[in-house]
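Ops channel
N.P.: pipeline sanity check, posting one input/output pair.
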């Protein structure tokens, strides 16, 4: 079995509070990946960055003082262009999700894990590293063409860092 991890494809990261043209540009590619994994009967897990109304008083909020992905808001929702039916969704309060890494590690007959989504240089790299640490003998791949970073330069830097940690990168 293969697992596709769709990281934080939420409105605030695509065209909302922290959106970028690069994030908007990958939506169709992520949609294609979801359709392919679904067609093959593979498992799909979405993550959703999730903050409370007190975000600005949190450690993250003090370093990134832009309210985003506030639970229940429109920006917190996964893009309506992506079909989440029959998929798992994990709400995560920070960059990397131990819950996601655990679910991946508990999968039986795991052949490969692939990650796509936002932001390459924050949440994608964090989750890829956690997953690689849990399933170090299983191939972990990040599709850089279906991911976007805060900036194009930080996207490329994150992809290079992941390559150094034996994560396969499609770019």
């Amino acid at each position: 079995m293969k697992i596709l991890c769709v990281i934080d494809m939420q409105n605030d990261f695509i065209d909302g509070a922290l959106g970028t043209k690069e994030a908007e540009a990958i939506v169709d590619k992520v949609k294609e990946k979801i359709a392919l994994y679904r067609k093959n009967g593979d498992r799909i897990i979405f993550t959703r960055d999730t903050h409370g109304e007190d975000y600005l008083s949190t450690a993250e909020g003090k370093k990134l003082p832009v309210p985003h992905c506030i639970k229940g808001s429109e920006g917190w929702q996964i893009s309506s262009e992506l079909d989440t039916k029959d998929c798992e969704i994990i709400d995560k309060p920070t960059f990397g999700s131990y819950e996601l890494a655990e679910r991946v590690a508990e999968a039986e007959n795991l052949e490969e894990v692939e990650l796509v989504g936002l932001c390459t240089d924050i949440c994608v790299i964090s989750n890829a590293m956690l997953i690689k640490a849990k399933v170090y003998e299983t191939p972990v791949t990040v599709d850089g063409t279906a991911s976007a970073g805060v900036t194009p330069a930080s996207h490329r830097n994150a992809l290079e860092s992941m390559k150094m940690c034996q994560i396969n990168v499609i770019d």
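N.P.: looks fine end to end. Residues 3 and 124 are 15 Å apart (CA to CA).
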